[in-house]
């Protein structure tokens, strides 16, 4: 195989295949499973999803492509920096937060599959206007997760969750959205990083698609992602240590003692500060992610939002064989009291999540 710069620049190296004979079969775009083919398969053979849900996921995936294009333009199109507005959480919105929210709203409003939408960036939910047909699903999203990384060119992403509305085509209210994570029928995230990825679950495992930028299609590149039960890697913002509650302090303190401590092994730490990137690493090679409740703002039980971040990520992590709790109970069982509810999050490799949770219950 020719790895020379000349060959790479001329585009002669086939990245998909290590051998010339395999090149012919794997490089053929028709042999690759696209997101559309995957979803049709889930609908027809696995009977995991209805046609309306398939179409809804396709629209979300298309919106993520549009967001990826805007993220990729960066300073060239004046995409960086603050929008000059604040969201309902009192956080300064970036221009790309606002643009990504608009893209998702516009793409999903008219398709006829939704009853309503809710976003981390909007104060209240959005009911589908009466000029469009109404469907049975509710879409919730964090349009651009990891906002603090936008201007520094670090991976960011979109997180989404789909619930089946229990209101029989009646008016949508905030209460319509307040369902536990176990009611999700689909969840996923896109990562805008060195490659653009879409990770999806419809309750039949977790599958990863890579955006083929030339073809404009999502191509299945990893099926049935699995999180190892054990790990030597943890992710937490250590600068908040003095604010943590004793169970998390105890757990992290034991990890930091390494081989000489009670765990008898050294642990490594990673913190991207984009949940999508941290969770994607955990899906790829294991690990534990924590954004615990802390004492900074007593009325906020954690930084991350239940409906837009914790629930979809917990559904994905559980589908990959991992675990997700708030320290006291499974996140997917938490009954939301309000749309923008916050929650403490501990997720990833099962044995580690169970250990931290047991420290909370001790
Ligand atoms: P955002 O949705 O406003 O971007 O906030 C959520 C992000 C997560 O992606 C990440 O895990 C966390 O905030 C990082 O927080 P911190 O900057 O406190 O480390
Ligand atoms: Mg977020």
How many DSSP helices? 10
Largest sheet: 8 strands, mixed
State the end-to-end distance: 57 Å
* Rg, alpha carbons: 21 Å
Query: Which kinds of small molecule does this entry bind, naming each only once?
Result: 2,5-anhydro-1,6-di-O-phosphono-D-mannitol, magnesium ion
Shape: globular
Helical percentage: 25-40%
Going across the major beta sheet, what is the strand order?
A: 4-3-5-6-7-8-9-10
Average pLDDT, all residues:
91
Order of helices and strands: HHHHEEHEEEEHEEEEEHEHEEHEEEH
Secondary structure: number of strands: 17
Helix- and strand-based class?
alpha+beta
Strand content: 15-25%
Uncertain segments are 11-26
Brief characterization of the structure:
The chain has 362 residues and is an alpha+beta fold. Helices cover 31% and strands 22% of the residues. It has ten helices and 17 strands.
Overview of this protein structure:
It contains 10 helices and 17 strands. Helix 4 runs antiparallel to helix 5 and helix 7 packs across helix 10. An 8-stranded mixed sheet has the order 4-3-5-6-7-8-9-10, sandwiched between helices. The radius of gyration is 21 Å and the shape is globular. A hairpin with a 5-residue loop joins strand 1 and strand 2. With 362 residues, the protein is α+β, with helices and mostly antiparallel strands. Bound molecules: 2,5-anhydro-1,6-di-O-phosphono-D-mannitol (AHM) and magnesium ion (MG). The site of magnesium ion has 4 residues, from strand 5.
Give the tags:
362 residues; alpha+beta; eight-stranded mixed β-sheet; five-stranded mixed β-sheet; 10 helices; 17 strands; 31% helix; 22% strand; globular; binds 2,5-anhydro-1,6-di-O-phosphono-D-mannitol; binds magnesium ion
